[in-house]
Structure formats: structure tokens, C-alpha cells
Amino acid sequence: MVQEQLDYHIREVTLEDLQYTDSVVKIVNEAYQTGDSWTKARDTFDFDVPRTNAEEINGLIKENVSNKKTHILIYVFDTTHKEESVIGTLLANYPNDKGESEFTLLSVAPQYQSKGIGGQLMHCMFNRIKRMGATTVVLDLLDNRIDLVAWYKKLGFIEIGKKEFNWRGNTIAGVSSLLMKKDI
Ligand SMILES: CC(C)(COP(=O)(O)OP(=O)(O)OC[C@H]1O[C@@H](n2cnc3c(N)ncnc32)[C@H](O)[C@@H]1OP(=O)(O)O)[C@@H](O)C(=O)NCCC(=O)NCCS
């Protein structure tokens, strides 16, 4: 069987991308929730809580193109066929006065994972925020997400501490947030 070559393109969102919001919500929630992701959280979190919704995504797109911009929202598009589709997302905040930039909403649609796309998306984000003055990228994640922690370490992140895990008021007994950073 001949495998079709995958072409993809990574760029910051524009207002035109409001048309993709429904599929973006699906991709993010599937990547975070279904357990189809190879980096899935194991056993400990109620992933029936959707990670995002259309209102949040539309708000982020509109803010992304406004003068009050505080973040960049980046999409990955599958451009193999004439009709392009969104297959990945990442949201990075503008750096604070210490040059630190946080990111969130990192997702690659489960059927597109393990092809190097997530790594490319991260490198694209590093380049963008560096140009905006960032010197360090920081994140926190569940300390029991062993696969994901190893993935971030491969990208050059190091562990810098732990704090109590609390996502929208949800805490989990015995699980903490692991803080990681990478100098860029
Ligand atoms: C985290 C995520 C974005 C990674 O995206 P991805 O496109 O699958 O990642 P990549 O293909 O770029 O990763 C490549 C590396 O990861 C590792 N990897 C990829 N697939 C793997 C698998 N199935 N098992 C183990 N390691 C794997 C390999 O080490 C590979 O490195 P190599 O090129 O040196 O072999 C994606 O899994 C995802 O959307 N997860 C769910 C949402 C989430 O948890 N987001 C982060 C919240 S903090």
C-alpha cells in the first residue's frame, strides 16, 4: 500500500478561521478527553469535563486580531487536499516582565499524532514568542502524565517544582501540578 504524503501548515489565526471553530472544539476536546491520545491522562481525572467550547475559541480568535492582544493562537492545517482542515492548536501568552511566556491548549488531533506535528508546533511557538521578547517558556501539567513529561523533556524542558493541582476548582488526591520550564 502506498502511504499518502501528509502536507501541513502552521500559522497564527485570523478572523477567517472563525469558520473552523466547531472542528477546533472537537479536536481539542478529543485530544484531551477521549483517551485516544498517546499522552492521555491515566485514571485520575474526570475528562468528561470538556477542555474548551466555541465561545472560548471564538473569543480567543477575536482577541488574537485585536489591539489588546495578550496571546497568540496558532493552528496547524492539513493541506494535503484542496479543502484544508485544522488538526492542531496551541495558545501562548505574551511574555511577562520577567520574559516568561506560558502556553496552553496544545493539541494534535489523535489520528494525526506521533508524526512530529506536536514538536513542530512547539518550535514554531518558541520562534514566535522569542520575537516578542520571551526568554523562557513555562508550563504546568499533572505530575502523573509520565509520557507527556518525557515528551517535554525531549523538547528541552526541565522540572522546576510542584504545586497543588487545581483546574477550574478540580483537585485530585495524590496528584500535583509539575512546573517545567525551557530557556529559549
Ligand atoms: C502532546 C501532543 C500535542 C504531542 O503531539 P504529537 O504530534 O503526538 O507529538 P510528536 O509526534 O511531535 O512527538 C514526537 C516524539 O514523541 C514521542 N512519541 C510520539 N508518539 C509516541 C507514542 N505513541 N508512544 C511513545 N512516545 C511517542 C517520540 O519520542 C517522538 O520523538 P522521536 O521523534 O524522537 O521519536 C499530543 O499527544 C496531544 O495532543 N495530546 C493530548 C493533549 C495534551 O495532553 N496536551 C498537552 C497538555 S499540557
TrEMBL record:
Taxonomic superkingdom: Eukaryota
InterPro entries from the UniProt entry: Acyl_CoA_acyltransferase, GNAT_dom, MshD_Acetyltransferase
MF terms in GO: acyltransferase activity, transferring groups other than amino-acyl groups
N-acetyltransferase domain: residues covered: 8-184
Protein name per Swiss-Prot or TrEMBL: N-acetyltransferase domain-containing protein
Species this chain originates from: Circinella minor
